[in-house]
Amino acid sequence: MSTRIVVDPVTRIEGHLRIEADIENGKIKDAFSSGTMVRLLEEILRGRDPRDAWAYVGRVCGVCTSVHSLTSVRCVEDALDIVVPPNAEIVRNIMFCAQYMHDHVVHFYHLHAMDWVDVVNALKADPKKTSELAQSISNWPKSSPGYFSDLQKRVTKFVESGQLGIFSNGYWGHPAYKLPAEVNLIGLAHYLEALEWQKEIVKVHTIFGGKNPHPNYLVGGMACAISTDDVSGLNAERLAYVEQLLQQGKQFIEQVYIPDLMAIASFYKDWGAIGGGLGNYMVYGDLPWNGYRDTSSYKFPSGVILDKDISKVYDVDLRKDDEIQEFIDHSWYEYKGAANGGLHPWKGESKIRYTGPKPPFENLDTTQKYSYLKTPRWKGHAVEVGPLSRMLVGYARGREEFKEVVDKALKDLNVPVTALFSTLGRTAARGLESILVTRWGLDFYHQLIENIKNGDTRMADSTKRDPEKWPGKALGVGHSEAPRGALAHWINIEDEKIANYQLVVPTTWNASPRDGKGQVSAYEAALRDTPVADPKKPVEILRTVHSFDPCLACAVHLYDEEGKHINRISVLGD
Amino acid sequence: MRQKAEYEDRILVMGIGNYLMGDEGVGVHLAQCLSALNLPPNVDVLDGGTSGFHLLEYFEEYPQVILVDATLDNNPPGTIRLIKPKFADDFPQAMSTHDIGLKDMIGALHLLDRAPEIHLLVVSIASLQQQGTGLTEEIEAIMPLLFEKVTEMIGGITERTLEWATP
To answer: Where does the pLDDT of residue B130 fall: very low under 50, low under 70, confident under 90, or very high at 90 and above?
Structure first.
């Protein structure tokens, strides 16, 4: 007999995710991922001016606000056949790189690290040994014995004052924590340093986007006029500041994030064989070097890999009716026409029909509908999206930069290439792509400066600003690689207004329920066979789910009517 | 967002919430309404939207922060309460849809010993199920009162007489 456990909500994520898992002989036999909130952006956007859509979608959550805005302006530009000037493309790319740097570092230290780092155990570390260890893995200057000893004192005082902060909600002391106290202390120190650093890198968004949070975008370009000597425009001083921020970000990622990631990973190599999941990976591609329409110029190439076979990469077409489709066999929605078929997002519908149990309830009937997430499929295949997919597709496409960082990491950790298809591989891929993104951010910056020096200061194409120049009806699709994975928006414009708008977001690909054929999506697949030592403290489930960096804010919305947001882990009867 | 670095008694009024989810966005509505006014020179207003970690620099920059947000606490909708959270754990559990980053950030600010004095004004709302950018009648009706509370608090902190028009 198996025991079903429920983790609801999964903590340290944005949004509300529930996992039910059947455990048999210390391993997960089957798992069910449910988004228990719903957010109907589609309804809010209907009837609005397409030029304003970016501002609404940017509000959906605070984590990847700018990538939704970016994807939105791209889909409107696609519908209206607008090509943005090169500088606007570059500014978007630099903001995108800053977003990645911020998002991946915050995910690693503030949302995921505590699945691996036992912060309570850090208080037992020897500051001198910690210092030696820190200096052996990195040149980062804050590494003296006094630095670590002061930190320990401060944290001890904090805990003794009765505050819990990050020390609450943990499974501290669980046998699955394997790090020496000194590595735990380094992790804790960098948790705090990363917090201070992250507030700097977001200033790139303030400079180009005019404000932060929720920076400004513009259909047709960007709203930041280049003016090398005007105090209010994008002048030489501000541009130099952007370069400084990108350099500091590169330094932090190379000297703090990556050494920590590798040090921690070296104690958890067994996780290179756990949490692999689907083995199908999809990337839409992003960071155009030569314009968004020239997909061959993307720094992140697009493609699909099936069954872990990296010798073949398939092309993706977001416009084709039979490639990307959303199904609702296990989702609380209803379609007007075919009850169980898939719909391409241009024909997409978002009518909710909740048929689950009335809360509070013990468990969901997972043979029926059990999630507010729809189930997207590519040519009928369940695929994983995100950093691991991007690194694998780049690698499989033969891109040298990808090969360099991936092969080096495999060699340094002394693990086989198959270790990539795992929870550890997913977490490592996020760090490895951060290395690439820090380099590219500076490349784009230098290109921008070069363009300005050559006299090109164009930042927007406003020739189609006037709706009278638009066709009566237009379809558009815009895509990006959000930090969490492939993101796309599909728009139908009719009579100058939004007639339909559909978002298919990365967490929907990964966290969706199974489809009508019983094929599971990425979370459910990755959780199968994961060992769970203590069903009451399922830190192993958190490790695998957090390795995807779940963000359900744009996929779903708060459901709990009682507002009881206590972290609940219930073990149900046999 | 206006920067007025010359004042030592700087106050930030930060409205947070999700503008797309009806009453959940009450803090953002208030911030937008305050931004349109001519405020005392030491007071800044920020629409914090749904951000968490992104807001750290503002918490470090101002000694006093008046934070306005919605909460789901079973009080009658429109109830306004002032909470002086000492620690992150003192924040209401179901503050809003974006509490994860915010609470962690405030916990870390204490750990860094850089937390400002936070005055948390919470507005009880009936449901987080609403969609759209409008407020319900119940919340719309208390906006003048919320506005008044915020201005009183600013006055209390600065010990100055404020000469503002009500919205």
So the answer is: low
Contact A163 B48 (CB under 8 A): no
Please list every residue in chain A whose beta carbon sits closer than 8 Å to the beta carbon of residue B134. none
Amino acid in the structure at residue A133: L
Question: What is the number of other CB atoms lying within 10 angstroms of the CB of residue A326?
Answer: 25
CA A295 to chain B, closest CA, distance in angstroms equals 32
Say how far apart CA B32 and CA B26 lie, in whole Å.
10
Give the closest residue to A195 by CA, choosing from B57, B17, B62: B57
Cβ of B94 within 8 Å of Cβ of A214? The answer is no
Contacts of A442 (CB under 8 A, 6+ apart): A243, A246, A247, A250
Q: Are B66 and B25 in contact (CB under 8 A)?
A: no
Q: Which of A224, A282, A243, A275 has the alpha carbon at shortest distance from A488?
A: A282
Q: Decide if pLDDT at B1 tops 70.
A: no
Is A365 within 8 Å of A6 (Cβ atoms)? no
What pLDDT was estimated at residue A38?
64
User: Phi/psi of residue A68, each to 5°?
Assistant: -70, -40
Spatial separation of the C-alpha atoms in residues A51 and A216, rounded to whole Å: 12
In chain B, whose CA is at the least distance from the CA of A66? B51
B111 contacts A155? CB cut-off 8 A: yes
Domain ranges for chain A: 3-571
Q: Which residue of A has its CA nearest to B85?
A: A163
Residue A426 near residue A548, CB atoms below 8 Å: yes
Distance CA A56, CA A135 (A): 46
Q: For A325-347, how does the pLDDT look when each residue is reduced to its tens digit (9 = 90+)?
A: 999 999 999 999 766 789 999 99
| DSSP track, chain B | ----TT-TT-EEEEEES-TTBGGGGHHHHHHHHHHTS---TTEEEEEEET-SGGGHHHHHH-SEEEEEEEE-SSSPTT-EEEE--SSGGGS-TT--TTHHHHHHHHHHHHHTT---EEEEEEEE-S-S---BSPPPHHHHHHHHHHHHHHHHHHHHHHT--------
- Structural domain boundaries in chain B: 12-128+146-157
Which residues, in sequence order, are CB contacts of A476 under 8 Å at separation 6+?
A75, A76, A77, A78, A79, A80, A490, A491, A493
Are A385 and A485 in contact by the 8 Å Cβ rule? The answer is: yes
Q: Is A467 exposed, middle or buried (0-12, 13-18, 19+ CB in 10 A)?
A: middle
To the nearest whole percent, how much of chain A has pLDDT over 70? 93
The domain covering B12-128+146-157 belongs, at the CATH homologous superfamily level, to HybD-like (3.40.50.1450)
Interface test with B, best of A123, A147, A202 (most B CBs within 10 A): A202
pLDDT of residue A352: 86
The helix/strand/coil state of A493 is strand
Counted across chains A and B, CB pairs separated by less than 8 A come out at 134
Residues of A in contact with B60 (CB under 8 A): 199
Distance of CA B115 to the CA centre of its chain: 16
- Taking every pair of Cα atoms in chain A, the longest distance, rounded to a whole number of angstroms, is 73
B36: which residues sit within 8 A by CB, 6+ positions away?
Answer: none
B-proximal residues of A, 189-228, CB under 8 Å? 191-192, 195-196, 198-199, 202, 211-214
Q: Which residues contact B150 (CB under 8 A, 6 or more apart)?
A: B13, B30, B34, B66, B68, B121
Q: Which CATH superfamily is domain A3-571 in?
A: Cytochrome-c3 Hydrogenase, chain B (1.10.645.10)
Prediction pTM value: 0.91
CB distance A286 to A300 below 8 Å: yes
d(CA B26, CA B70): 6
Rounded Cα distance, B45 and B12, in Å: 6
Judging contacts by C-beta atoms under 8 Å, the chain B residues touching residue A162 are: 87
CA distances from B108 to A164, A497, B73, B112 (A): 10, 45, 25, 6
